[in-house]
Write a structure and sequence with these properties.
mainly alpha, rod-shaped, single chain, two-stranded antiparallel sheet
Length: 173
């Protein structure tokens, strides 16, 4: 089976930073949802003297907390999914890096997700068997074999610049 995604250098830093940014965003979103639920239950039974529900700022507050928390939950999950896609298919690093970057900005992936997205965008994959980008070449130019002649008397292979055969002493030219 042909493996198109075999690369010598994996985008490990981009993957780890995006994953950690997504997990932190996931935890923050759950905290927002929890605070919104807590505010709802704490103030939902509050009534004024005449029996009206007058929550004031808390009426919108709990809904806002839950809504923002749900949005952050969705974007954090997407950042985590795109980080996994980046690790699984590093040759499509531009697509996954752009998506990680976008959802880190509009969500709460934070600085770690943002940096992970940028690292995924600038990542340069090196295919397995390809020449490395830096360092000495692994597969240098082919070595030239020195020119040789065959001794007509003994059949030994001798260097082309030798005048006499080192085996039998016959003059070669």
């Amino acid at each position: 089976m042909y493996q198109q995604n075999q690369v010598q250098n994996k985008p490990t830093a981009a993957y780890v930073l995006s994953l950690v940014g997504g997990i932190i965003g996931l935890l923050i979103s759950l905290a927002f949802i929890g605070l919104g639920a807590l505010a709802y239950f704490a103030f939902s039974s509050y009534t004024d003297y005449y029996g009206y529900y007058d929550l004031g700022a808390f009426g919108w507050g709990w809904g806002t907390l839950v809504g923002v928390g749900a949005w952050m939950l969705i974007t954090s999950i997407l950042v985590i999914v795109f980080a996994g896609k980046l690790k699984a298919n590093p040759l499509e690093h531009s697509k996954w890096g752009a998506l990680i970057l976008i959802f880190s900005i509009i969500g709460v992936g934070g600085l770690l997700g943002f940096i992970g997205g940028i690292l995924a965008l600038v990542y340069k994959p090196i295919l397995v068997g390809a020449q490395p980008q830096y360092g000495p070449p692994q597969y240098g130019p082919p070595q030239q074999q020195p020119a040789t002649n065959v001794c007509p008397q003994c059949g030994r292979i001798v260097q082309a610049n030798e005048r006499f055969c080192p085996n039998c002493g016959k003059q070669l030219y």
